[in-house]
UniProtKB/TrEMBL annotation:
It comes from the Bacteria. The lineage of its organism: Bacteria, Pseudomonadati, Pseudomonadota, Alphaproteobacteria, Holosporales. Transmembrane segments: none annotated. Belongs to the Omp25/RopB family. This is Outer membrane protein OmpA-like transmembrane domain-containing protein. Residues 52-233 form the Outer membrane protein OmpA-like transmembrane domain.
């Protein structure tokens, strides 16, 4: 009788120990397979590019243009002809850019938005050239072309390729302020006579950029834009003085520019 009782107690104790070990093992497996709610929430909450944002960029710009310069002196010397000079300008310089925009990131990671850019330039291109005339000899001239600032609204389309990185394309219409200066440096009549004209030039501006989120609010960004400008037509007084008898100087040019920038974006 005692042997049966002892055997029953041993069997019961063994079953309890086995059950406790099995329960502990199941809990460990469940804890490994099921992460905490906090970790799950973090892993399922990617950076979102939606919202209003501002940005500041610095970089460079390279502009090139071909200028056809028409110098008409027949108003003061009928025997003279109209002289055509072709000049090629190319200059790389510093630029800065600020922007304000809004965009929306959809469930399929597609991004669409609108932004307004303001550009500031230090582009000052100049070229010395000579105009050979039958009666006045050689006129030594200097032409200067300058762009100072621009305004550009743009449509934005992009794709969030990872939770923190987006590739963004843009298409904008820009307006830039240009200034042309003509200076005569030869010793005929009033030396160093300077005439200046200013005008706005419009451009079509496609672009491509990348943005990487450092935090939910701050991002690093890089962009490249190409500007196709309309033809510019400058009409200046000639190369002597500002009287009505002065010659006429006309310039036709169609610039193009490459802009490459890096900067930081803050999303509200």
């Amino acid at each position: 009788m005692k042997k049966k009782l002892i055997s029953s107690c041993l069997i019961s104790t063994s079953l309890m120990i086995l059950e406790s070990h099995t329960s502990f093992a199941n809990e460990q497996v469940a804890s490994v397979q099921t992460p905490s709610t906090h970790n799950t929430r973090q892993s399922r909450t990617p950076y979102n590019f939606s919202g209003f944002y501002v940005g500041a960029f610095v970089g460079g710009t390279t502009m090139n243009t071909k200028v056809e310069n028409f110098l008409d002196l027949t108003a003061i010397i009928p025997a003279e002809d109209t002289f055509i000079n072709t000049l090629n300008f190319r200059k790389s310089s510093f630029m800065g850019n600020i922007l304000l925009g809004y965009r929306k990131q959809f469930a399929n990671q597609f991004i669409a938005g609108f932004e307004l850019n303001g550009g500031f330039f230090n582009q000052n291109m100049e070229k010395n050239y000579d105009a050979q005339t039958p009666n006045l000899g050689i006129l030594n001239l200097k032409m200067r072309l300058k762009r100072s600032y621009s305004i550009r609204p743009s449509l934005i389309l992009g794709w969030a390729i990872t939770p923190r990185m987006a590739v963004l394309g843009s298409l904008g219409v820009g307006s830039s302020r240009f200034e042309q200066t003509l200076q005569r440096t030869s010793a005929i009549a009033n030396q160093n006579t300077i005439h200046t004209a200013k005008q706005w030039a419009h451009s079509l501006v496609p672009g491509l950029g990348f943005e990487y989120a450092l935090t939910p609010h701050f991002s690093l960004a890089a962009s490249f834009h190409y500007e196709f400008f309309q033809q510019l037509n400058f009409n200046l007084p000639g190369v002597f003085d500002t009287t009505s008898l002065d010659g006429v100087n006309r310039s036709n040019l169609k610039p193009a520019a490459y802009n490459y920038m890096v900067g930081i974006v803050y999303k509200f």
